Amino acid sequence: MRLGVLFSGGKDSTLALHLAAEKEEIACLITVISKNKESYMFHTPNIDATSLQAEALGLPLISIITEGRKEEELADLEKAIAEAKSRFQIEGVVTGAVESVYQASRVQRICNGLNIWCFNPLWKHDQKTLLETLLKRHFHVIISGIFAYPLDEKWLGKQIDEQVIAQLVNLQNQYGISPSGEGGEIETTVLDAPMFKQKIEIIDYMVEAKENCGVYIIKQARLAAK
Amino acid sequence: MILVVDLNWKKDSLAFNEFVMPITSIIRPFEKCEVKHFSEIAPEDLDVYKKVVLSGTALKDHTTLKQLGKFNWIKTLDQPLLGICAGMQTISLVFGEHLTSCLQIGMAEISTLKENPLFQENFKAYTLHNFSVKPCQTFETLAESTKCIQAIKHKQKSIYGVLFHPEVRNQEIIQRFIKLIY
C-alpha cells in the first residue's frame, strides 16, 4: 500500500514514518506549516526544517502553508492530502497521533472523505516506552520547544537521552507533565534517524524563551554524511 | 489466558499497533493474553482460553465482513466473547443478522438502555465505524448513540459487542469483561 506520512519533523511523526516503512511503501511526506502559533493541529518550532529532513530521508515532500484558523487549517490539510493522492497515488495516510482524539478524529474524517486509509501506529502507546524506543532505534532528537512549568530555557536544544527521559518521567510524577509532550508541553526536532541517508547538522540557532515557554529555532542547517 | 483476535486485513499489518496492542496493554496487568490473527484460529485450540476479544480494524477495512466462514467457531464458543467495532459487526453477521450504514468518527454520547455488567448510565466514547447493526431477534440492545446501536448482547450466550472503542476511552469496560464471572 502506498502511503503518505503527515510529517512535522518531530519525534512522533518520524517514528510513525519508520514503523510504517517497515510494513508498507512510503510515497511522500506531507507537511502543513501553520502561521498560527496556537494551532492545535500543526504548530511546531522547526517546521521549516522539514524540507531538509525530507531531503535527508530521500522522500518527496508536499508542503503547504495555512493561516491556521481552526477549520480552515483542516481544509488546507485536506488539500495537501488530496494533492498527495493525486501526485503520488497514495492509498492511505500515517500520523504520529498518540493520545489526541481531537487530532486523530479530524484526520480520520479527512481520509474517509478522500476514500483513503488512515493509520496511527503510535496510538495509545505508553509515552515513556515511546521515548525509550527512540533511543533503541538510535534517533537523534533535540527538544526544540518547551511550553509548561517547570520546564525552562535549559531544556532547549537538549538531546533526548536516558538522563533526559528519567528527568521527564520525574516531572510527570511531580507535575503531571506528559513525558513525551503529548499535552504540548514539549516539542522536538529529529536530526538523525535510521531512515535518514544523511544527518542534519545545525550551523546556527536562536533561543527565544520567557519563563516556562520557549523555542529553539534552527536558523541555518546542512546535511552531513553519517 | 485471554485470546485477542486480530481482525485486521492481514497478519502483522500496520494497523496492529493501533487496534490490537491497546487491548493487550489493558488486559496484561490482569491476565495473560495471546494474540492470533483471525486467519489462524482453529476451533479445537480455543479450549485453553478463558475469554476471547475480537479487535476493531481501520475504518476502510471490512475484510472480516466478507470472510465470515473464518468465524464459524463463534457459534459454538462456550467462553465469553467481546467484539469491538468490526468485532461486533462480525459477530452479528455470523449469527445471520444484518448491518446498517452508520458513519461515526470521534467522541459520541452513549446511552445505556439495559442493565449489564460492562457499563452503566450515559457516557462519552470514541467511535470509528461505517456500519452498525439492526435491532434483531438474536441480540438485545444494551446501548445506543443518537445515530445507531452501540452495544449488544446475545440473548442466551455471554457474547457482547461494542461498536465504540473502549481501548481508547472507557478502558474499564475491557477490564470488567476480563473480570466477568460467568
Largest sheet of chain A: 5 strands, parallel
State the total count of DSSP E strands of chain B. Answer: 9
Q: Could you tell me how far the N terminus lies from the C terminus of chain A, measured between alpha carbons in angstroms?
A: 30 Å
Approximate strand percentage of chain A: 25-35%
Considering the protein shown, what is the CATH homologous superfamily of chain B?
Answer: Class I glutamine amidotransferase (GATase) domain
Kindly give the count of domains of chain A: 2
Shape of chain A: globular
Rg from alpha-carbon coordinates of chain B: 15 Å
Shape descriptor of chain B reads: globular
Could you describe the 3D structure shown?
The complex is a heterodimer of chains A (226) and B (182). With 226 residues, chain A is an alpha/beta fold. Chain A has 2 domains: 2-119, HUPs (Rossmann fold, 3-Layer(aba) Sandwich); 127-224, putative n-type atp pyrophosphatase, domain 2, CATH 3.90.1490. Helices cover 33% and strands 29% of the residues of chain A. In chain A, the strands form 2 sheets. Chain A has a 5-stranded parallel β-sheet, sandwiched between helices. Chain A has a 4-stranded antiparallel β-sheet with strand order 7-6-9-8, with helices on one face. In chain A, strand 4 (92-94), helix 4 (101-113) and strand 5 form a beta-alpha-beta unit. Chain A is globular and about 45 Å long. In chain A, 46% of the residues are buried. Chain B has 5 helices and 9 strands. A 9-stranded mixed β-sheet of chain B has the order 2-1-3-4-9-8-7-5-6, with helices on both faces. Chain B has one domain (2-179): 3-Layer(aba) Sandwich (Rossmann fold). Chain B has helices spanning 16-19, 21-27, 73-76, 86-94, 172-179, and strands spanning 2-6, 33-37, 51-54, 81-84, 99-112, 122-133, 139-144, 149-154, 159-162. Chain B is an alpha/beta fold and 182 residues long. The model of chain B has no long low-confidence stretch (mean pLDDT 97). Helices cover 18% and strands 33% of the residues of chain B. The radius of gyration of chain B is 15 Å and the shape is globular. Chain A binds chain B through residues 1, 19-20, 23-24, 92, 94, 101, 105, 108-109, 111-112, 115-126, and chain B through 12-15, 17-18, 21-22, 25, 58-61, 103, 105-107, 126, 128, 167-169.
